[in-house]
Structures are given as C-alpha cells and as structure tokens.
Amino acid sequence: MIHIAIIGSGPSGCYIADYLAKKLDNAQIDVFDQQPTPFGLVRNGVAPDHLITKNITRQLEKAFTRRNVRFIGGVRIESTPQAHSYCASLTPLELEKHYNIIVLATGATHDRQLDLPNQDIKGTYPSGALAAWYNGDLTQNQHPYIGTKIGIIGHGNVALDAARLLLKTREQLLKSDMPDHVINALTKSQPNRDIYLIGRGSAANAHFSSGMIAEILELPNIACYRTDTNIPEELPPDVLKLIPKEHHRDRLKNLALFRKIPVLNGDLVKIRPAHLPRLTFIFDTTPVKLNGEEQVEAIDLRTSDDTKTRLPIDTLITAIGFEQSPTSLNFTEPTYSVGWCKNGAKGVIQSNRVDAVNTARDIINAVQQSVPCDKIGYHGIKAILDTQPALITSFSDWKRIDEHERNAATEDKPRKKITDYATLTALINAGK
Ligand SMILES: Cc1cc2nc3c(=O)[nH]c(=O)nc-3n(C[C@H](O)[C@H](O)[C@H](O)COP(=O)(O)OP(=O)(O)OC[C@H]3O[C@@H](n4cnc5c(N)ncnc54)[C@H](O)[C@@H]3O)c2cc1C
C-alpha cells in the first residue's frame, strides 16, 4: 500500500485526490486541512451570493466518497508546532515519517500588502481577510467596521465581489449563505454608501471579468459612475501586448460596459444622488497616502496626469492580490505541489483541475518507477493526534455539519453556516 498525504482540501487538493484515487488502486490518500470543514476558498473565499459557484462543492466532495480517500480536518501542518484553538498540529517530519508521497495544496491566501504611509491605520482591511469574515470562517475572529465612504484599491474580481456585497440590500443578501451578523454589519448604512473602486491602470487594463461588471450594473437602485471620460472602442497597443489573446474579447466587452456608465461630472467628493448607494470606478489613479489619527479619514490619490485629490473615506479595502504564506513548510524529501500554492493566486477554480491532473500523472509515473512502500500512513499519525485536545473531523462529520447548516436555513437561504467553533464541536461530539 502506498500512503499519500495531501495538505489542503481546497479545489486543488480535492481534484488531485480524486484523480489519484481513481488511478491508483493500491494507494490510501489522506487529505489534511487546518479547517474543520473541507473545500478551502470555495467555502471561505468565493462570494456568499455566488451560489452556483459555491455548488462546485458537490463536484469536489466526490473525492471523499471514494473508498481510498480520507478527509482529516482540524490538522495544521507547520514546521514550528503551535497551540491553536481550532486545530491540532503536525510537523512536516511527522508526515514524512508516515507517508510515501506528500502533496502541497495549501493555496496562496496571504493578502498582498499595500506599501503606503500609514497603511496599518484602523479601518483598513485586506480583501482575503474580509472575504473570510463575510463567509463566516470560524478560524477568523475579526469584526471589521464597515462605514459609509469606502475606498477599494484594486481592479480585479475580488474587488468587485466586495463592492457588490457592500451595495446589496438586506433582502438581496438574505438569499446568500452569508451569516446574519455579517448581513447586519454590512447593511447598517447601505443606503448612504459611497464606494470608490480605485485602480492605477486604464479601463482597458482593469482585470475584471465582463460578467462580473454586468452583474454589478444590473443591481437595481444603485447609482454608478466612472471618472474616465475617454473609454476607447479598441484595446490600446500596451494592453494587446500585455494580456493573452484569449482574454481580448472579454476586455473589449469590459470597455463596452464601461462606456454605458455615466461620467461623473464635477467634484468626485461632493456629488451624490439622494438615498442611493453609489459606486464610482476610478481609473489611472494611484493611492499615495492614508490620512487619519486613530481611524482612516481620507486617502490621497494621484492621477496619471499628476492631479492630486484627497478623498474622504472611513473604510479602506485592499484587493491587490494574494501570495503564499511567508512561513513555508520545511520537508527534507522532495514533495509535489498543486494549484494556487504552485502557480500563484491566479485563475478560476476549474484551472486547478487541469493542474491537478497533470501533477497526478507525474506522481503516478513516479510510483510506477518504484516508491518504497514501508510506511504506515494514518495509523501512525492518529497516535500523534490522539495526544492533542483539538477536534479532528472526518468526511462524515462534514456531512453532519452540512446537513445541520442546510436544515437550519430559513426559506430563501441555502444554508445557515456554523460560525463558531464551540457550536461546531458540540454538534460533532453529539454525533459520536
Ligand atoms: C476572495 C476570493 C474569491 C474567489 N472567487 C472565485 C469565484 O467566484 N470563482 C472562481 O472560479 N474562483 C474564485 N476564486 C479563486 C479560487 O478560490 C481558487 O482558484 C481556488 O480556491 C484555489 O484552490 P487551492 O486548492 O489551490 O487553494 P485553496 O482554496 O486556498 O485551498 C487551500 C487549502 O489548504 C488549507 N491549508 C493551507 N495551509 C495549510 C496547512 N499548513 N495545514 C493544513 N491545511 C492548510 C487551507 O485551509 C485551504 O483549505 C476566488 C478567490 C478568492 C481569494
């Protein structure tokens, strides 16, 4: 028997586990995750109102229904073991001792930092941490203050997710799987909200997908503006050179959508329609400095033609990408990696499937060439985990959580997420 450990049960971990399980009869595949629940960013990153995308979990969970795949939730692999309130801890060496092959599928969810004077001031939130909060991630304990004048730095889909969720009404959000306490916090001052989506590139450079722009423009009862008076009909040469050909059509669609948005005439700061939340796309503009004593009060911006503006804001969200956690895992033997932790934070969920299949084929080739089969896998690991107090979850525990969350949901909601560790522990222990 070959024992394979996969670290991470996001899309990459699930796709590779599924493929290996199908092709390697003589393998036991154990998928570890620090979270007590599987599916990585699909549960804790993808916007809670994108229910069709969330439903991809149905495809991902197939891996765990195979006889030779095991989900082991609530176990963090880390080079320097630490005490955590929500998971047990294993070192890379302990894994190596018990598994023949180790696959890293740990993602890349460390928020990239904005390098601005005063950037750590209260009221600024990186988009990854914000997404974990609005998804009810029970391993996070922050409660952001969401004000009325919100700057979002970044022109990608994660920035648009944040803008859309901040613009939606309570009735609209109640149909999502967003926890109630988050809906309350997000919608408190929603009708008076002014959101500025700030990016340093032109409209043609913006990384949004056209479907995401269209979705936000279709929201009823919001006012939408743009600062760029001259949106071109064609992609400019610098963009043509920079982005792959397969994205050209979508970028042209973006331009067509931007042209439909009215230009903001007059002062960016003062004009606002009565009683409607407003979204303004600001192009060709770089943030220079954050201002405020205790809490962010304004952001200084500079346009490409060197015009300077001080924009009053009470909340800043940075959505400028993700990178791998700076604390890397130290293995003594070669490992495989897959998905975002290998390729960086780019691409959609399905892109990880292609990468997982290719990586799995490399593993299968290596196994066919000869891998020693003298390790005992989970039996050895279980003895170590039994000495730690944390709750370790299995796939059947997840099914119990899933059922409980679906049953607890009110009519329009797909699920009412468990967002605290004590409730989750009580539920699992009651079923043991
Ligand atoms: C905010 C946000 C919204 C997104 N929305 C969409 C969308 O709408 N549509 C779309 O197609 N794509 C979306 N994406 C992209 C998509 O989520 C990624 O393509 C995908 O999740 C990457 O999969 P992964 O398995 O490589 O990483 P992840 O999904 O990040 O999974 C990594 C897993 O590894 C676990 N882990 C990490 N370190 C350890 C450790 N040391 N020990 C144990 N476990 C560990 C984590 O807990 C996690 O479960 C979004 C991404 C973000 C950040």
Summary, kept brief:
The protein is of the alpha/beta class and 432 residues long. It is built from 17 helices and 18 strands.
Observed structural traits:
FAD/NAD-bd_sf; alpha/beta; FAD; 2 domains; Rossmann fold; NADP; 18 strands; flavoprotein; single chain; binds flavin-adenine dinucleotide; 5-stranded parallel beta sheet; FAD/NAD(P)-binding domain; FAD-dependent oxidoreductase; 432 residues; 6-stranded parallel beta sheet; 17 helices
Q: What number of domains?
A: 2
Q: Give the N-terminus to C-terminus distance in angstroms.
A: 29 Å
Percent in helix: 25-40%
Major beta sheet summary: 6 strands, parallel
Name the CATH superfamily assignment of the largest domain: NAD(P)-binding Rossmann-like Domain
Report the β-strand fraction as a percent range. 15-25%
Number of helices: 17
* CATH architectural label of the largest domain: 3-Layer(aba) Sandwich
The total strand number stands at 18
- Name the overall outline: globular
Our Rg estimate from Cα atoms comes to 23 Å
Strands ordered across the widest β-sheet: 8-16-9-10-12-11
CATH-defined topology of the largest domain: Rossmann fold
The pLDDT mean sits at 93
SS-derived structural category: alpha/beta
**What is the top-level CATH class of the largest domain?**
Alpha Beta
Pfam family, one: NAD_binding_8
Protein name: FAD-dependent oxidoreductase
Keywords: FAD, Flavoprotein, NADP, Oxidoreductase
Organism: Neptunomonas phycophila
Describe the structure in your own words.
34% of the residues lie in helices and 18% in strands. It is built from 17 helices and 18 strands. A hairpin with a 6-residue loop joins β13 and β14 (298-303). It has helices at residues 11-23, 40-44, 51-54, 57-60, 92-98, 127-134, 157-167, 170-173, 180-187, 210-217, 237-242, 248-260, 340-343, 351-369, 378-385, 395-408, 421-430; strands spanning 2-7, 27-33, 69-73, 75-77, 88-90, 101-104, 110-111, 124-126, 149-153, 194-198, 223-226, 278-282, 285-291, 298-303, 308-312, 315-318, 322-323, 336-337. The protein is an alpha/beta fold and 432 residues long. The chain has 2 domains: 2-108 and 324-430, Rossmann fold; 111-322, FAD/NAD(P)-binding domain (3-Layer(bba) Sandwich). The mean pLDDT is 93. The protein has a 6-stranded parallel beta sheet with strand order 8-16-9-10-12-11. A 5-stranded parallel beta sheet has the order 3-2-1-6-18, sandwiched between helices. The chain has a 3-stranded antiparallel beta sheet with strand order 13-14-15, with no helix packed on it. α7 (157-167) runs parallel beside α10. The protein binds flavin-adenine dinucleotide (FAD). InterPro entries: FAD/NAD-bd_sf (IPR036188), Ferredox_Rdtase (IPR055275).
